[in-house]
Amino acid sequence: MRSVPWITLYVGLAIGGGYLVGAALRWRLWAAAWPRPASSVDREEGGIGDERGRIDPVVAVALIEAAAAVVWSLLVLWAIDRVAPGAATFRDSSAVGFLSSQTLTAWESASLWSGIAVIVGLTFPSPLAVDRGSSGVAGVIALLFLYLPVALFVAASAFFGAQLVQGKQRWSPTIAIVMLPTSEWVASIFQLRASWGFVHGPETALWMLAVAGVLAARRGRTAWEQFGPL
Q: For residue 40, what are the CA distances in angstroms to 43, 45, 89?
């Protein structure tokens, strides 16, 4: 059960499972963090509207979402590494860019795509509650910090740099999203190395484009819901 077809099956299940984890988690977090609007009576009696001594629900949800994406990704990394140890009948490198010297191993590739599956489940938990999806930012930041810190540093610098420019604050999230695939593409070309994380290459650039697409799609849907078709 360690041949290529079986590994393909395992990775597919891991990616599908990642989406289900994100979607179910988002549904539960929404119900737990915001069960109903706080009334004036709640505030006066120190009910759910009293936030003293409690973690802000938004912060708590962001931390849980980030942990879910990282834990699932690491779990898949460990599991695929165990069942695909690089035997003679199995190419241990990912099929994406395997002719490049910057290719990822099969288990690293599986962990990346399973991680983004969790993000997709958090941002678009259809059919449970599409309109209650997360922004996905917390989970993406956690995955980037763990696997591709160079791209995270560039995107964060672009975001805060735009915040300092007068009149550009509104565009800062968009600028940061655009810088994600751009920075990873540049890092792949120049073969940049970080102190930790995965090697920059064709697959990480493709994965980063998918990440940027998910974040942009969620941001675009939010704008459409607030302001109508753009």
A: 5, 9, 67
Contact yes or no for 45/17 (Cβ under 8 A)? no
Helix (H, G, I), strand (E, B) or coil at 127: coil
Residue written as token pair 């920075």: 183
* Bridge partner residues of 62 (DSSP): none
Nearest-CA neighbor of 115 among 66, 179, 178, 152?
A: 66
Q: pLDDT tens, 75-120?
A: 999 998 888 765 555 556 666 666 566 788 888 999 999 999 999 9
Q: Which residues contact 21 (CB under 8 A, 6 or more apart)?
A: 68, 72, 118, 121
For the whole model, what pTM was predicted?
Answer: 0.81
Angle, vertex CA 74, rays to CA 73 and CA 78, nearest 5: 120
Query: Strand, coil or helix: what is 46?
Result: coil
